Hints:
Layout: H1 3-18, H2 22-29, E1 33-42, E2 48-59, E3 65-72, H3 77-93, E4 99-106, H4 114-128, E5 137-141, H5 147-161, H6 181-199, E6 208-212, H7 216-227, E7 231-237, E8 240-243, H8 250-260, E9 270-272, E10 284-287, H9 296-299, E11 306-308, H10 317-326, E12 329-331, H11 333-336, H12 339-353, H13 361-372, H14 380-395
Parallel strand pairs: 3-4, 3-5, 6-7, 6-10, 10-11, 11-12
Antiparallel strand pairs: 1-2, 2-4, 7-8, 8-9
Helix pairs in contact: 1-3, 1-14, 3-14, 4-5, 6-7, 6-12, 6-13
Amino acid sequence: MNALAATSRNFKQAAKLLGLDSKLEKSLLIPFREIKVECTIPKDDGTLASFVGFRVQHDNARGPMKGGIRYHHEVDPDEVNALAQLMTWKTAVANIPYGGAKGGIGCSPGELSISELERLTRVFTQKLHDCIGIHTDVPAPDMGTNSQTMAWILDEYSKFHGYSPAVVTGKPVDLGGSLGRDAATGRGVLFATEALLAEYGKSTSDQRFVIQGFGNVGSWAAQLISEAGGKVIAVSDVTGAVKNCNGLDIPKLVEHSMENRGVKGFSGGDALDPKLLLTEDCDVLVPAALGGVIKRENANDIRAKFIIEAANHPTDPEADEILSKKGVLILPDIFANSGGVTVSYFEWVQRVLNRRAPHGFRTFFAGFVRSSNRLNPQLSSLVYYRPHLQSLAATQEYPRVHVG
């Protein structure tokens, strides 16, 4: 199912359960602003290359809009729109005073040199600089981008608006970034998993994990789960998949992946068809790659008891219904992978307000799981959208959050 259609379907279901006013429901489905720009750059060989970039600003009712920028060849307007909408719900669930946004450029970053990526990022920033800002829209890294990308955006934006270290998060520490930001999303996945398992009388050390995706989120989740005693028996990335029923040596796999640009060829396990990874026998399945990977076609074959959505919208609504009937418990993405935006908020606060980062990262995840489990499981979609929707339904307005 199309990413935007899936996200909108989940929202409409939650709105129906809430009895949300139809006018408010419609306004929340329509983004605040959609931006599409052409980015033409000279390549290293002297030729010109053109790319299309997007930024969707979904909602600013709770504060400045927030969301990553991804570089991937499958970036398109519907995907960016869906991800921006999810960011609105995610920041509300995390109780962070942000709205939602998302951006991206349709490109294959692995086929571009460092200098080409820098030129592309700077041109993209030149086209967007009047639409982002410290109190307006704060980008961050996402798939295919990193702290260096954020440094380029900061530098280019500052040429127009003066030095503005709070305009992006996920920066290098030397430029005002936050310690631990690289691992934040993966660490949040661990904390969310621990909190969920504890509610069912289980611990991480008792479980077998399968992780799809070994990029930033997947690799950090694997490392931290392994350190917590969990047995990671299979992982995959774009190069292939590897399995070891006795548990993979994650530190060695990380080293191998860095040296070989992927998990393929790792000697500490057996090669596995990546298409079969999601249906491997395990206790906990962690999709940490692209969206829409768990579908109606493969949902019946999934053998995991728990699914932790480390990726954005990895489960289609039809698959959701099938898995629910099977008794599989899914921890949704807008909660499970909210560690990244939580630490991004800490970084933003430090740069804007000169405050120390607040505490309670782990406590947030445990408290949320306890409160959501008190509700009927059929109302799961309601609880994840409730914080944002109830505040809007009460006011019927879009109050601004002024900072500084």
